[in-house]
Amino acid sequence: MTTIGLVQQKGGVGKTTIATNLAATLQSRGYSALLVDADPQGTARDWAAKSEDIGLTTVGVDRPVVHEELPSIEGFDVAIVDAVGKLEKMTISVIKASDLALVPIQPSAADLWAVGQVIDHIESRQEITGGKPEARFVISRAIASSTMTDQVQEILNEAPFERLETEVNQRVAYARALGDGKSIHETSDAKAKKEINDITDELEQILQTHGQRRPQS
Ligand SMILES: Nc1ncnc2c1ncn2[C@@H]1O[C@H](COP(=O)(O)OP(=O)(O)O)[C@@H](O)[C@H]1O
Ligand SMILES: [Mg+2]
After folding, report:
1. What proportion of the chain, given as a percentage, has pLDDT over 70?
2. Rounded to whole angstroms, what are the CA distances from 105 to 121, 139, 200, 214?
């Protein structure tokens, strides 16, 4: 099983939005996907409870034991872990559990100090393990046609890992889908669907470098 963790100690950056859509998209592509809600607020669980038709298995983990418990779960190709919006033991546990840490970053957020700490934690972990987890930023909640602030650009340039090419824009469909227990594919927003499909394509490439085979269709 390959594990992708959505980590960022700042709340409201789109972790749960990306986690739910990624899990649903991978599932629809034939992977057996597990959605792990590692945020005691339980937004991903609430979403999953409304989204039974998507057929995703969801587990909630409320203590920082994700890295201890995930390896013993069998029967899934990929686990998508939605982490808590605070830098606490839970975030570190999710970083430890992940093969790939995905760090959503808003292109114009003022409180960017938060990101630095997550980057530091990922880097320390990589030093201990010899490179795991791999990591990528994903620009989230971007406002179309507005440019990235210099501050954000600087962080991205200096950071020890790359960002995904695809950005998630700010779109009403994402907010509605999360509240309605839907995936973006059940909405009529074609641009949003394309973003999620493109991100999933990029991640599938990375999963393959981890030996994760594509499901046969
Ligand atoms: N790309 C987006 N476009 C519109 N609304 C978004 C987007 N991403 C997140 N939101 C909304 O912002 C709020 C916080 O998003 P969420 O995914 O829960 O962030 P986090 O898990 O990082 O706290 C939610 O109400 C969600 O619907
Ligand atoms: Mg969340």
Report:
1. 98
2. 16, 5, 17, 28
* Probe target for ligand 1 pocket from 108, 174, 193, 198, with the most ligand atoms within 8 Å of CB: 174
- Model pLDDT for residues 186-199, shown as the tens digit of each residue: 999 999 999 999 99
- Domain count for the chain, please give it: 1
- For residues 82 and 80, what is the distance between their CA atoms, to the nearest angstrom? 7
* pTM greater than 0.90: yes
Distance (angstroms) between ligand 2 centre and the Cα of 46 equals 11
Which is nearest to 183 in space by CA: 198, 193, 191?
193
215 assigned to some structural domain: no
CATH number, position 8: 3.40.50.300
Domain assignment of residue 127, yes or no: yes
Indicate which atom in ligand 1 lies nearest the CA of residue 20.
17
Contact between 81 and 9 (Cβ < 8 Å): no
19-38: per-residue pLDDT in tens? Answer: 999 999 999 999 999 999 99
pLDDT at 111 over 70: no
**Domain range holding 60?**
2-209
- Within a domain: 217: no
Q: Say if 67 falls within a structural domain.
A: yes
The CA-to-CA distance between both ends of the chain, in Å, stands at: 19
Give, for ligand 1, the residue of 8, 17, 45 to mutate: max count of ligand atoms closer than 8 Å to Cβ. Answer: 17
